[in-house]
């Protein structure tokens, strides 16, 4: 199902401190379930999902990263070629919010590509809020990205993260698509964003022309 | 000299994805196997080499705690000396608890950060197990990991160590409490509440020291930039390409960094997340019986597993391989499936160690 037709293939990474709910957000989005039963992510995990944005299908290859600093070496290798970035903090963990700028800067330092980002404050279901909505909005404005508060537990606004990211991706891809199609970077109508993917995806991409 | 050409790899190489019709007669054998262990363990000076040999093929669960302590050289094979040595180790641990968890203890920022990390991870260690959801067990696990962190400043606590300590904890605890190791729950939760606190502290201390013993030869898997795992990966590529070139080529051209991250993920927690908990205990029997070489065996275990899915993987493309490797069917394996895989891994290891 997930391996079927699509217009674009996009690599997305999810970043943020340990325990803010990155894996839960993704599982809710990709598998429509929430479970308390997730172990800490080691290194990176992989998920795949087709996102419909109006008349287009965007295939998301999503990398769920470990929050612990020790794994930064391995998670950073996935920054390259990422086109969508989801920064997550926990509304009940002040430090995780304070650290978001560190995560944003780590992206700015390691990639020159323009990326579509979104800032997510998770755990909206909890009564013990430590970060106000206005603070999240302000930070998102500073880095010119959309902002959303979510609850993976209650499946609140999770789809919206990807819908909003998807809209921005679509606008960007259509613009970029025009730009690079002159540069023979398109293949079967599909815009390739990532060199690694370029080498590996030929067999699935051949049937994707729209 | 045994070279790879001289060994008929095909005879080893089990291309069946599942181990069917495994030797189920192990149940019948259990009686005599337990007796063999008991014969060894009852000697005044326990012949460690015999024990290593016997333990490699699996340790009966009721003897596991003693055998593991011996294999890790935490417990002395000399029965007379053992008690004093182990008591001293335990006292050392209790002293560390008193120092690092003293009342009014002030932690610096770095320590606070790692305490928070450990507490987050402890909450999600083997999340579907009632044992690990027990607050008393969680506090105990936090202490073990924090003390490990302080005593090993070069690498500190790294996510995945919480998984590695869990087999020790369950095995040592099961000496005093009835545990359903399949469901990983207490047969009777109240038993823990009524257990002598002194015994719980012993379990904690023993788990800590066994974690130390196990990790001492692989510390550079966990230090900055994790050089041990990079070496492990390079060796993995070298050996897989020799044993199954087609698979190797398909994997390395289909995936690049991704392959490294799988190897990394599996080996950081000693392959434990690849199997059901009970099967993980069986895995530890063999790893501990390998002494200092156990991490090398892990490499060959990974290779044996991948080769098992070789034909399938070769037909898959990027996404499908990724999805398969994310959710390997090894989680469905029984202990005897793992035993066969271990034998294969051992055979491959022998080929390469003789080269």
TrEMBL record, chain A:
GO terms for biological process: protein transport. GO terms for molecular function: GTP binding; GTPase activity. Protein transport. Probably involved in vesicular traffic from ER to Golgi. Pfam families: Ras (PF00071). This is Ras-related protein Rab-1. InterPro entries: Rab, Small_GTP-bd, Small_GTPase. Keywords: GTP-binding, Lipoprotein, Nucleotide-binding, Prenylation, Protein transport, Transport. It comes from Paramecium primaurelia. Belongs to the small GTPase superfamily. Rab family.
Automatic annotation (TrEMBL), chain B:
One of its GO terms (molecular function) is GTPase activator activity. InterPro entries: Rab-GAP-TBC_dom. Residues 58-291 form the Rab-GAP TBC domain. Pfam families: RabGAP-TBC. Transmembrane segments: none annotated. This is Rab-GAP TBC domain-containing protein. It comes from Paramecium primaurelia.
């Amino acid at each position: 199902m997930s391996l079927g037709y699509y217009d674009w293939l996009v690599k997305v990474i999810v970043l943020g401190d340990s325990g803010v709910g990155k894996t839960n957000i993704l599982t809710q989005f990709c598998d429509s379930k929430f479970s308390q039963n997730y172990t800490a992510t080691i290194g990176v995990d992989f998920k795949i999902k087709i996102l419909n944005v109006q008349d287009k299908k965007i295939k998301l290859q999503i990398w769920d990263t470990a929050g612990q600093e020790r794994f930064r070496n391995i998670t950073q290798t996935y920054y390259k070629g990422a086109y969508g970035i989801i920064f997550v903090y926990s509304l009940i963990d002040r430090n995780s919010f304070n650290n978001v700028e560190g995560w944003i800067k780590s992206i700015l330092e390691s990639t020159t590509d323009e990326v579509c980002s979104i800032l997510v404050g998770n755990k909206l279901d909890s009564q013990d809020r430590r970060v106000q909505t206005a603070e999240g909005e302000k930070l998102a404005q500073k880095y010119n990205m959309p902002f959303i508060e979510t609850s993976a537990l209650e499946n609140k606004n999770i789809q919206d993260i990807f819908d909003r990211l998807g809209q921005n991706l679509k606008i960007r891809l259509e613009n970029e698509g025009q730009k690079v199609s002159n540069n023979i970077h398109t293949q079967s109508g599909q815009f390739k964003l990532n060199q690694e993917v370029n080498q590996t995806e030929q067999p699935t991409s051949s049937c994707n022309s729209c | 000299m045994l070279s790879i050409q001289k060994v008929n790899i095909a005879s080893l190489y089990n291309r069946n994805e599942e181990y069917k019709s495994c030797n189920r007669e192990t149940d019948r054998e259990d009686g005599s196997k337990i007796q063999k262990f008991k014969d060894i363990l009852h000697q005044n000076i326990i012949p460690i080499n015999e024990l290593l040999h016997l333990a490699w093929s699996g340790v009966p669960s009721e003897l596991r705690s003693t055998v593991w302590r011996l294999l890790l050289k935490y417990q002395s094979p000399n029965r007379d000396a053992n008690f004093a040595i182990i008591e001293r180790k335990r006292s050392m641990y209790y002293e560390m608890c008193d120092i690092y968890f003293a009342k009014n203890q002030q932690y610096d920022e770095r320590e606070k950060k790692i305490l928070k990390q450990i507490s987050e991870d402890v909450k999600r260690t083997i999340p579907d197990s009632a044992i690990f959801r027990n607050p008393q067990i969680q506090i105990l696990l936090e202490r073990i990991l924090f003390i490990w962190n302080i005593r090993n400043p070069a690498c500190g606590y790294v996510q995945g160590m919480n998984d590695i300590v869990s087999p020790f904890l369950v095995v040592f605890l099961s000496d005093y409490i009835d545990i359903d190791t399949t469901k990983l729950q207490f047969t009777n939760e109240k038993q823990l509440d009524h257990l002598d606190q002194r015994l719980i502290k012993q379990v904690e201390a023993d788990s800590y020291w066994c974690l130390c013993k196990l990790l001492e030869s692989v510390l550079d898997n966990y230090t900055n930039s994790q050089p041990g795992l990079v070496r492990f990966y390079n060796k993995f590529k070298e050996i897989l390409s020799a044993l199954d070139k087609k698979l190797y080529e398909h994997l390395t051209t289909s995936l690049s960094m991704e392959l490294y991250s799988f190897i990394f993920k599996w080996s950081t927690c000693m392959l434990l997340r690849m199997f059901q908990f009970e099967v993980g205990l069986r895995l530890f029997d063999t790893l501990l019986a390998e002494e200092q070489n156990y991490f090398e065996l892990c490499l060959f275990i990974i290779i044996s597993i991948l080769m098992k899915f070789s034909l399938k993987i070769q037909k898959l493309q990027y996404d499908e391989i990724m999805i398969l490797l994310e959710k390997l069917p090894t989680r469905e394996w029984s202990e005897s499936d793992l035993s066969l895989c271990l034998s294969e891994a051992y055979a491959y290891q022998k080929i390469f160690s003789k080269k």
